[in-house]
């Protein structure tokens, strides 16, 4: 008797369940935030990759002992040594670009640089009542060096440089009536050391010392049948500070 009385309730229960199943289960709505692609930042403490930058410097300590040999028809006539010392000095600005590889704490790579500015010196003497003058000027310097350094901490790099440079120079001789300028180019060796420190993900500042020796170069001042020849020995030191930007 209880079985028959429970029958209508069971029928009603399964009928309701069937209706719910027939309608399906409705999943709750979920808000999904859009994914925005971002450029991968440069890893902190990594020095590898390309870079470019600029610098301001001061050149000093140049040593060029001025002396002349007078030639007539190619033959030496008179030698006038030890007139004075030309010690070029002055401010110079430059731009550079390079690439670096890193292996552990060691960082190395080539750097190409160009510098120009106001670096010069002059000397004068009195001869037979006339004042003679000479001036040496550095017009520009193109250099290619290998930089090798060691990271003393992830943000600080100490390094050395060694390479070659090509200098563009002007030599001017003058007296009370006239002046003559002869331009010449000379190649030499450069070497130095520096320190660089990061100030952001892609920027760094540096300070560097470099010594440059361009050897000897004969410079001729040709006159009427007479040539005054001097051996230019351009060399100097350079201190500079600057900033690099990593690509």
List key phrases describing it:
247 residues, mainly beta, Porin, eight-stranded antiparallel barrel, four-stranded antiparallel β-sheet, 1 helix, 12 strands, elongated
Description:
- This protein is mainly beta.
- It has one domain: Beta Barrel (Porin).
- Helices cover 9% and strands 68% of the residues.
- The chain has 1 helix and 12 strands.
- The protein has one helix at residues 2-23; strands at 49-60, 64-72, 75-86, 89-103, 106-127, 130-153, 156-174, 179-198, 203-213, 217-222, 226-232, 235-246.
- The strands form 2 sheets. An 8-stranded antiparallel β-barrel has the order 1-4-5-6-7-8-9-12.
- The radius of gyration is 38 Å and the shape is elongated.
- The model is unreliable at 1-15, 17-24 and 39-44 (pLDDT under 50).
Write the layout of secondary structure elements.
Blueprint: H1 2-23, E1 49-60, E2 64-72, E3 75-86, E4 89-103, E5 106-127, E6 130-153, E7 156-174, E8 179-198, E9 203-213, E10 217-222, E11 226-232, E12 235-246
Outline the biggest β-sheet: 8 strands, antiparallel, barrel
Top-tier CATH class:
Mainly Beta
State the total count of DSSP E strands.
12
Number of domains: 1
Task: Give the distance, in angstroms, between the N- and C-terminal Cα atoms.
Answer: 90 Å
The CATH topology assignment is Porin
- Oligomer classification: single chain
Helix content: under 10%
Total count of helical runs of at least 4 residues: 1
Q: How large, in whole angstroms, is the Cα Rg?
A: 38 Å
H and E order: HEEEEEEEEEEEE
